[in-house]
Write a structure and sequence with these properties.
single chain, alpha/beta, seven-stranded mixed beta sheet, two-stranded antiparallel ribbon
């Protein structure tokens, strides 16, 4: 199955600014992207990075440049194919080949892996009329869109697919559960787990400067 991985190449992961500087955010975002690509390939699927600008990758994958907003860019990919298409977000640093296989093998006209807070972190589209509408409570929006066109929906309840990395607190999950380039990059930046409080938190030896 073809799997599209959207990626904001110019200013990725801006909400990580309190923890990471601009160059670090760019390097970390590319590390997560590489982990996602490798998981897709290991699961036997074909990844295409849908990037907002030309991109040099640390791993081998096709890149399609589309600088339109996310929904418009993904819908263009859906309109251009008559075969099932999966969309997996580039900040799913905990994704494994088994996770990708579970997503792509789940039956349904539309298969959705919701993220925390009501977003859509991954989906598979098999219905020719389905189009995406990201941002906000997009999981609910996508269920409503599917219902309107008579498409049945399958939902994936997955910790790894639900764990997107947007806020500094999300770095804990990468350090605890990640196994690829992303946690290695964080450790290069000096992050470790602070286990001294009531909850585990990401701890860094030096403050970040832009």
């Amino acid at each position: 199955m073809q799997v599209v991985v959207p990626f904001a190449a110019e200013t990725p992961k801006t909400r990580l600014q309190p923890a990471l500087g601009a160059d670090e955010r760019s390097a970390f975002a590319r590390a997560m992207l590489a982990d996602v690509i490798e998981a897709i390939e290991a699961a036997g699927h074909r990844p295409t990075v849908l990037s907002t600008s030309p991109l040099d990758l640390a791993v081998d994958a096709a890149v399609t440049v589309d600088d339109r907003p996310l929904s418009a860019a993904v819908n263009a990919q859906l309109e251009a194919t008559d075969t099932p298409l999966a969309v997996v977000m580039a900040d799913l640093a905990l994704v494994t080949p088994a996770t990708v296989d579970r997503l792509c093998s789940r039956q349904g006209d539309v298969v959705i892996a919701p993220g925390r807070g009501g977003g859509t972190n991954a989906l598979v589209v098999r219905h020719p009329e389905f189009r995406v509408d990201y941002h906000g409570a997009s999981y609910l929006d996508h269920c409503a869109i599917a219902d309107k066109i008579g498409a049945d929906v399958g939902t994936i309840d997955s910790f790894r697919l639900a764990s997107d990395v947007d806020e500094p607190s999300d770095l804990v999950e990468v350090l605890v559960h990640g196994t690829g380039r992303a946690p290695a990059r964080l450790r290069e930046f000096g992050f470790e787990l602070d286990r001294g409080g009531g909850r585990v938190a990401p701890l860094r030896g030096e403050s970040v400067r832009e």
